Amino acid sequence: MTDALTTAERDTLIAPLLANGWTMVNGRDAIQKTYVFGNFVAAFGFMTQAAIWAEKLNHHPEWSNVYKTVDVTLITHDCDGLSVLDAKLGAKMDALAKG
Amino acid sequence: MTDALTTAERDTLIAPLLANGWTMVNGRDAIQKTYVFGNFVAAFGFMTQAAIWAEKLNHHPEWSNVYKTVDVTLITHDCDGLSVLDAKLGAKMDALAKG
């Protein structure tokens, strides 16, 4: 069981993501970001790297891809809200997208 | 420019997909299928193989993934409808999903 973040933890862990292009999802305690790459190979290359990290963390995104665009939603189904795993995976994805 | 399929071509190329789990999308001349695998690694492994084929065909899916489930929509944006490329990629995805 993964605990939902406390308010204090959100200030530390989620606020930096919200300052970096992530937004809260309407009606869900989840965060969303849209990445746009140069082409499909770059977009799917990002997904492949993120997929390996997701499996390592045992925490998987809800995501979609259309050509060079990747939409990611992060939430922890265990606690039906944001946990430390979403903060970790979100920060990792941002790092991978920078290359 | 890729031409939309004729009615006769649909009977030959799209009908077999519709008989194999693909369905027409409401309000779009597009086909959709949901694949369910054993786990995330299997689901993303399928996506990785399909991504390489998509790039080879220069024809890319609209798709999403949540853990072991992959939702695929195929349409040819050039003709805003189904073309031979959708038939090819759909059949290839079915073959890849079988392993």
UniProtKB/TrEMBL annotation, chains A, B:
A biological process from GO: tetrahydrobiopterin biosynthetic process
Pfam family, one: Pterin_4a
InterPro entries referenced in this protein's UniProt entry, alphabetically: PCD_sf, Pterin_deHydtase
Keyword hit for Lyase: yes
Record key words, sorted: Lyase
Enzyme Commission number(s) of this protein: 4.2.1.96
Catalytic reaction list: (4aS,6R)-4a-hydroxy-L-erythro-5,6,7,8-tetrahydrobiopterin = (6R)-L-erythro-6,7-dihydrobiopterin + H2O
Molecular functions (GO terms): 4-alpha-hydroxytetrahydrobiopterin dehydratase activity
PANTHER family named in the record: PTERIN-4-ALPHA-CARBINOLAMINE DEHYDRATASE
Family per similarity comment: Belongs to the pterin-4-alpha-carbinolamine dehydratase family.
Record-linked NCBIfam families: PRK00823.1-3 (NF002018)
Name listed for the protein in its UniProt record: Putative pterin-4-alpha-carbinolamine dehydratase
Lineage of the species this protein comes from: Bacteria, Pseudomonadati, Pseudomonadota, Alphaproteobacteria, Rhodobacterales
